[in-house]
Specification:
Layout (H helix, E strand, L loop, with lengths): L9 E9 L13 H18 L9 E12 L8 E9 L5 E10 L8 E11 L4 E2 L4 H7 L1
Antiparallel strand pairs: 1-3, 2-5, 3-4, 4-5, 5-6
């Protein structure tokens, strides 16, 4: 299965993450669970950068699904260029996408994944419309 990033996507954040020795599995490559952690890290860094800090008494983002497709192994030592894109802003949701490419192999995507984010009113425990300021970052 090939990851299809929508035609209308917006690059919102980029960062470089080193693969740590402990990120590997018994086969000597980046553990599958580490890919999810890397995607979480870039997503949280972007949220922080745009002022979307957690507020359990207010509203904010909740991830409702996540996936990753693996094309080539990533192995230690390696610095990985992560790129995060957003798309498909709905009433209360949007999609995020991430690509993984070794810094020493620009443009060679070794893995790609994504997540669906729902904007939630935490005290009410239900979805809420995306605020205008957040929508502006997505569209």
């Amino acid at each position: 299965m090939k990851l299809e990033i929508p035609e209308v996507k917006k690059l919102v954040h980029e960062m470089i993450m080193p693969i740590r020795w402990g990120d590997m599995d018994a086969m000597g490559h980046l553990n599958n669970a580490s890919y999810m952690r890397f995607m979480e890290t870039i997503r949280i860094e972007w949220f922080t950068q745009i002022g979307c800090d957690p507020n359990p008494q207010g509203q904010g983002p909740v991830i409702v699904n996540v996936f990753c497709n693996f094309y080539k192994q990533l192995q230690y030592p390696c610095d990985v260029r992560m790129k995060m894109f957003v798309s498909d802003a709905g009433r209360s949701s949007f999609e995020s996408w991430a690509t993984f490419e070794p810094v020493d192999q620009p443009g060679v995507i070794h893995a790609a994944g994504g997540a669906t984010t729902i904007w939630v009113d935490f005290p009410a425990q239900k979805s809420a419309p995306l605020p205008d300021w957040m929508r502006a970052h997505i569209t």
